[in-house]
Here is the input.
Amino acid sequence: MKTITLGRTGLQVTEMGFGCGGPSRAGQSTGKTVAESVAVVRRALDAGVNFIDTSEAYGTEEIVGQAIRGLDRDALVLSTKKRAGPQITPQDVVDSLEASLKRMGTDYVDIYHLHAVVLENYEYLLAEIVPTMQRLREQGKLRYIAVSERGHADPQHAMLQRALDDDVWDVMMVGFNILNQSARERVFSRTIKKDIGVLVMFAVRRALSQPERLRANLEELIARGQLDPADLNMNDPLGFLVHEGGAVSLPDAAYRFCRYEPGTHVILSGTGNPAHLEANLASFERPPLPEADRRRLVHTFRRADSVAGN
Ligand SMILES: NC(=O)c1ccc[n+]([C@@H]2O[C@H](COP(=O)([O-])OP(=O)(O)OC[C@H]3O[C@@H](n4cnc5c(N)ncnc54)[C@H](OP(=O)(O)O)[C@@H]3O)[C@@H](O)[C@H]2O)c1
Here is the structure.
């Protein structure tokens, strides 16, 4: 699997990262046993993926710990997160990181995020919590400091646009997909200049894996005047992407669309279904979408910034 440098961290990461949250939580939200979830994460690692994202909030850190047991820790890039509301204290962060390390069976995390931050909490977290993260970095318990946005509450990226004014963030987790490409101008144009590592969430999520959720997202965009229904055949709105020489499925199109977007590094992909994992691994071996298809997506969704793809 192809690797890329994660911005100024210098970490060599695979372009596909295994995400242990999202609607699947490695299968823990879709009825899989812990052993099945461990096996799917381990299969991703055996197939060459070196990046795993989780969070204290997902309930999957132990699954990650079991999946990486016996592997060369230094060859892996582990990313986890601290839930970050206005009520958290510096001591909470110290305790949370310690607990995350214990659950994953490791003594350092590569990327530690403040999780799902919204603009109204940003100044507090920057002033009161980031110094503690910097101290934890000096102690070797984390290597790089990151922030993730709360996609469904902030699809316009207000928090990340504010965070880009500061120089403390090595990595950002950004919502980006076919239906909401607003990060291109608002976030990636600046992360590229600052050499910040970018992890993409929401590449597929529900809207691009469940036809009824796609329809609901499109109807919302039409109702808000952000999508012209004349630009799509509403009976099969994104079906034009699947053809000989194009995408093999909508999730395939969604991953390839994100992967080749300038400024993105790791595209997160989550599943608890072994067949979906194999399909997604194959997507990351494929070339960009045909340029005519990509241009049509950019044009069709040029005004869309109100849905996260849920
Ligand atoms: N604010 C934050 O910090 C935040 C928020 C959300 C997510 N994240 C991170 O981003 C990662 C990605 O999450 P996401 O929300 O973007 O969700 P995602 O991983 O894109 O979700 C994919 C969904 O589609 C299904 N799926 C996967 N591959 C498929 C395929 N080939 N065909 C059909 N269905 C398929 C999965 O369920 P099956 O199990 O059925 O395959 C899952 O329900 C998370 O795991 C997490 O690490 C972070």
Summary: The longest strand covers residues 109-117. Residues 207 and 214 are 4 Å apart (CA to CA). The mean pLDDT is 97.
